[in-house]
Amino acid sequence: MNKHFDNYTVLITGAASGLGKELSVCFYKMGCNLALADTNFSALHVLAETFTGTNRLISIHEADVSDPQAIQSVVDVVLLKHKQLDILINNAAISASVSFENVSVQNFKKVMEVNLMGVVHTTKCCLPYLHKSKDGYIVNIASGFAGMGFPGKSAYAASKAALIALTNVLQTELAGTTVKPSYVIPPPMVTGIIVNNLHESFEKMQREQQFIRKHATNTRQVAELIIRGMERKKFRNVIGFRTRWVDLCSRLFPSTVQQLIGKRRSKIDFY
After folding, report:
1. Active site residues
2. Is residue 269 part of a domain?
3. What 3-state DSSP class applies to 94?
4. Which residue in 18, 39, 183, 241 has the fewest CB atoms around it within 10 Å?
């Protein structure tokens, strides 16, 4: 992996596991200084202990992105320790696999507070410092569910669709500055989000896990492709042939896609 981002400071939310963890490893290998945030502080500590043998600065921060005061405190500490911030990866997310009729308003709001408002809080706290970077990046991890009427994903899909809309606006508002917003639509991956997901039954959670495993792409590979997209200044990074195909069909033929999904509901009954 090249040294395009050598000595950059990267803040990654949801860094303790899954895609966030793999991004941390990849950026570390590129010579970056890391500020890693997650609600699972013990897992962050274990991850940080693997980064040895260089003089790069690694800091870990326990934080819930849905709490604006907590995020402001984290960013303050990051700047105190690192003195700069060049890249923000908004990766932290939760999900729910429950039909819209059955999901509680409280759980729906919780998904929105983490997946959307968490990005709002973190980005607003970081943006003044990203403006000071000669080469700043905001990378928002979205989802193909944003463009699909996938059963049981109303809260998650709504949060990711709103995230894409937010990133579109940031792209136009920050045009001409040194800050480059972008979003990623990754392929299915085996991460902790399914196990920690809200489901209507244990059996349906297992079925969703089996579905993901069948179609999953290696998480390290996805992380590397995200960084490659950043190097190429890609605003919209859709990863994987199957993901690009589904994304294209969802945008060009939305009615047809929703009809096909509706007819196959019995095979994707995760809610």
Report:
1. 156
2. no
3. coil
4. 241
